[in-house]
Amino acid sequence: MTIYKKQPRNLEETSQATIAESTARQSAGLTSLFKGSTLSIGEPRTASVHRVTGETDITLTLGLDGTGHCDITTDVPFFDHMLNAFGRHGLFDLKVEALGDTEVDAHHTVEDTGIVLGQAFAQALADKRGITRFANVAVPMDETLVMAAVDISGRGQAYCELPCPTERVGSFDTELAVEFFYAFARDAGVTLHVRELAGANSHHIIEAAFKAVGRAMRYACELDPRVTGVPSTKGSL
């Protein structure tokens, strides 16, 4: 592709190469990545998802450009607390009503809420035009430090290292935090890394992780006024 050719040495060749480069960018659909944005940032980016299975019934609404207003009911109190932390620190307006077979345990409710939240993000982001795409955050909580990094890549995958010193926080199974992030990343179509850099208290570790992922998603979803098209050299995500 002409864009990647070695720079010519004289003025005539330089002019010809510049024209060829511009033509190549236009034909590849990359021009919009290199000029100021015309994206209307006033358009609301919202989504509503309702998902019913034999184990859960979940209704969720999401506003990406909100103020952090949350209304969460899942019948899993610690999980409600974590979703509130995610929404509040991500500045997402988030309403979740989840009914699940919590008489068995909280696994299906937590995992399926991750699925639905991921679907809502994918829906609200639409074609991903103008987004920042990449973000990383390290969040401290007393002795704990957790890092989250995200790429809104279109390739849903998560890599989590969140060792907790206890099996439960109250009645909440600490393993479910990672299950939530796996489900969320897969259905949101994002690449997500969550790493515990320091920590001794299970509550602090999980809460710092939810705050870090919420804040990283906030920054990755934000609109960059310098980007018009999709932030990818491929032209799509």
Helix content: 25-40%
**And the CATH topology?**
Ribosomal Protein S5, domain 2
Total number of helices = 5
What does the average pLDDT come to?
86
Family: Belongs to the imidazoleglycerol-phosphate dehydratase family.
Enzyme class: lyase
GO molecular function, one term: imidazoleglycerol-phosphate dehydratase activity
Catalytic activity: D-erythro-1-(imidazol-4-yl)glycerol 3-phosphate = 3-(imidazol-4-yl)-2-oxopropyl phosphate + H2O
Lay out the secondary structure.
Layout (H helix, E strand, L loop, with lengths): L10 H18 L17 E7 L3 E8 L6 E4 L3 H14 L2 E8 L6 H19 L8 E8 L2 E8 L5 E5 L6 E2 L2 E2 L2 H13 L2 E8 L3 H20 L16
Parallel strand pairs: 3-4, 7-10
Antiparallel strand pairs: 1-2, 2-4, 5-6, 6-10, 8-9
Helix pairs in contact: 2-5, 3-4
Any descriptors?
25% strand; Ribosomal Protein S5, domain 2; globular; four-stranded mixed beta sheet; 237 residues; 5 helices; disordered N terminus; alpha+beta
What's the short version?
This protein is an alpha+beta fold and 237 residues long. It contains 5 helices and 10 strands.
Description of the structure:
The chain has 237 residues and is of the alpha+beta class. It has one domain (46-221): Imidazole glycerol phosphate dehydratase, domain 1 (Ribosomal Protein S5, domain 2), CATH 3.30.230. 35% of the residues lie in helices and 25% in strands. The protein has helices at residues 11-28, 77-90, 107-125, 176-188, 202-221; strands spanning 46-52, 56-63, 70-73, 93-100, 134-141, 144-151, 157-161, 168-169, 172-173, 191-198. The strands form 3 sheets. A 4-stranded mixed β-sheet has the order 1-2-4-3, covered by helices on one side. The protein has a 4-stranded mixed β-sheet with strand order 5-6-10-7. It has a two-stranded antiparallel sheet with strand order 8-9. α2 packs parallel to α5 and α3 runs parallel beside α4. The longest helix has 20 residues, at 202-221. Mean pLDDT is 86; it is low at 1-15 and 21-39.
